[in-house]
């Protein structure tokens, strides 16, 4: 594995046939990035591998979105072959899926290139898509929205068992039931998941805000998850232990050595967007922030000497698989520092410590999870724009900086972009509920009754 302070790797027609080819071409482009059309199977098996998977050592409410109806059953056309009905139905269904997810241009191209499969049904759907695209409005409000979580508590009885860690979990974590309850409330309030990397751009050394076009009444929402590392201290306390990828490319959680689809934010949000595509602008999901001192995604890739060769290679391969699957399904990956040391929190970090910290993340984590320009600050710390430690981050490519700020400010300045985030955890929901109510919902609607009183 590459190491070192500054090493940065970059692994990183007419005939029915014409209609089918047009469909495949468009869908291939779209689905390469968002993996739409996959079937989420609760009992899916993990990707098979020739290598053994060694044992790790320790050490609902309806959608409030668009109102389009499903395509009507296709009527037979004697001028076309027998399977034309099926092909046309597939075309209509695919275009409808694209429409619901705001892939308007892709849906238009698919329908306009339908060849002999085109009829009054495809024409009607084409007009609907065009009308919805033309009805988009520019988002003019300066207020953008960014909420964040830590890994979710799957089993509250283990997390809130009264030991010395229970109070911390109560403050800084969110339960699975709470997160699931939040999603329909956010959707009802008009929020729509948006890719933060599409909110600003860096051009000729200067940042600037990008235009955001949404259906009227929609508000752009960013979601991020900190410390997706599954630290050793969480073992046995009711959390997932790692991420993995199933046969169909879905990111899954491993809970008690079992494959689950609701063990953390990522698979839960993936499933919700699959059911409610109107909740996500063009497949956007959120940001996964990882440190480095405990590896990534539950794989201890920065402690390789502690494992045998087979386990080392398995962990490295799994880390890359998870990172690629996340990115392919609409997620971004961010740096959350390597050490997450208190010198960040206290702002006592020296230049040498920062060089060591960021250098190790770039040298030992980035090669396996991919490059990123997003820095999710540990402890939510903020630095003055002229602080040399902030400049070091920007100069090393992290020009999107996300601290913690309950007002969620977002702005471009010089060569960087700042976006504040609010934590929807026990601390905020129990002790500062007005911060949540002001923008989103009453926390009392979602608070898990199993939380300590």
Brief overview:
The chain starts with 15 loop residues before the first helix and ends in a 16-residue tail after the last helix. Strands 2, 3, 7, 11, 12 and 17 form a six-stranded parallel beta sheet that branches. Strands 13-14-16-15 form a four-stranded mixed beta sheet, with no helix packed on it. A three-stranded antiparallel beta sheet has the order 8-9-10. The chain is α/β, with parallel strands linked by helices.
Task: Based on the model shown, name its key terms.
alpha/beta; 6-stranded parallel β-sheet; 4-stranded mixed β-sheet; globular; 2 domains; 15% strand; 453 residues; 17 strands; TIM Barrel; disordered N terminus
Give a structural overview.
This protein is α/β, with parallel strands linked by helices. The protein folds into two domains: 16-137, no CATH class; 138-445, Glycoside hydrolase/deacetylase (TIM Barrel). Helices cover 34% and strands 15% of the residues. The chain has 15 helices and 17 strands. Strands 2, 3, 7, 11, 12 and 17 form a six-stranded parallel sheet that branches. It is globular.
Supply the number of helical segments: 15
CATH architecture of the largest domain: Alpha-Beta Barrel
CATH fold category name of the largest domain = TIM Barrel
Structural class: alpha/beta
List low-confidence stretches. 1-69
**Overall mean pLDDT score?**
87
Proportion of helical residues:
25-40%
**Total of domains:** 2
Main sheet makeup: 6 strands, parallel
CATH homologous superfamily assignment of the largest domain: Glycoside hydrolase/deacetylase
**Broad CATH class of the largest domain:** Alpha Beta
- Provide the β-strand percentage band: 5-15%
Radius of gyration: 23 Å
Q: How far is the first residue's CA from the last residue's CA? A: 47 Å
Strand tally is 17
Q: Sum up the overall morphology in one term.
A: globular
């Amino acid at each position: 594995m590459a190491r070192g302070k500054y090493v940065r790797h970059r692994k990183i027609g007419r005939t029915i046939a014409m209609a089918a080819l047009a469909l495949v071409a468009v869908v291939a482009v779209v689905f390469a990035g968002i993996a739409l059309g996959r079937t989420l199977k609760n009992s899916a098996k993990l990707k098979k591998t020739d290598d053994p998977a060694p044992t790790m050592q320790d050490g609902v409410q309806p959608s409030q979105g668009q109102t389009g109806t499903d395509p009507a059953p296709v009527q037979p056309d004697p001028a076309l072959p027998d399977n034309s009905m099926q092909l046309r139905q597939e075309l209509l269904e695919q275009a409808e899926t694209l429409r619901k997810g705001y892939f308007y241009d892709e849906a238009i191209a698919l329908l306009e290139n339908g060849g002999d499969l085109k009829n009054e049904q495809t024409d009607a759907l084409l007009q609907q898509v065009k009308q919805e695209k033309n009805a988009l409005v520019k988002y003019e409000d300066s207020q953008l929205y960014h909420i964040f979580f830590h890994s979710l508590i799957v089993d509250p009885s283990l997390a809130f068992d009264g030991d010395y860690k229970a109070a911390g979990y109560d403050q800084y974590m969110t339960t699975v039931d709470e997160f699931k309850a939040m999603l329909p409330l956010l959707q009802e309030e008009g929020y729509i998941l948006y890719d933060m990397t599409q909110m600003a751009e860096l051009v000729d050394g200067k940042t600037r805000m990008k235009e955001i076009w949404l259906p009227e009444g929609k508000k752009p929402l960013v979601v991020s998850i900190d410390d997706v590392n599954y630290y050793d201290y969480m073992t046995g306390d009711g959390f997932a232990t790692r991420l993995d990828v199933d046969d169909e490319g879905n990111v899954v959680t491993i809970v008690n050595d079992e494959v689950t689809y609701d063990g953390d934010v990522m698979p839960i949000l993936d499933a919700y967007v699959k059911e409610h595509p109107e909740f996500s602008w063009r497949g956007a999901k959120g940001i996964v922030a990882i440190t480095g001192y405990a590896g990534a995604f539950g794989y201890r890739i920065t402690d390789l000497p502690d494992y045998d060769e087979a386990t080392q290679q398995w962990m490295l391969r799994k880390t890359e698989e998870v990172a690629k699957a996340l990115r392919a399904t609409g997620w971004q990956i961010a740096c959350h520092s390597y050490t997450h040391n208190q010198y960040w929190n206290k702002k006592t970090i020296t230049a040498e410590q920062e060089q060591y910290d960021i250098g190790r993340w770039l040298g030992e984590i980035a090669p396996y999870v991919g490059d990123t320009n997003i820095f999710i600050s540990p402890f939510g710390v903020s630095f003055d724009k002229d602080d040399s430690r902030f400049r070091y981050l920007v100069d090393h490519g992290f020009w999107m900086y996300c601290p913690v700020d309950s007002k969620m400010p977002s702005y471009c300045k010089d060569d960087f972009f700042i976006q504040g985030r609010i934590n929807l955890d026990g601390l905020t929901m129990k002790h500062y509920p007005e911060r949540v109510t002001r923008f989103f919902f009453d926390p009392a609607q979602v608070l898990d009754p199993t939380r300590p009183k």
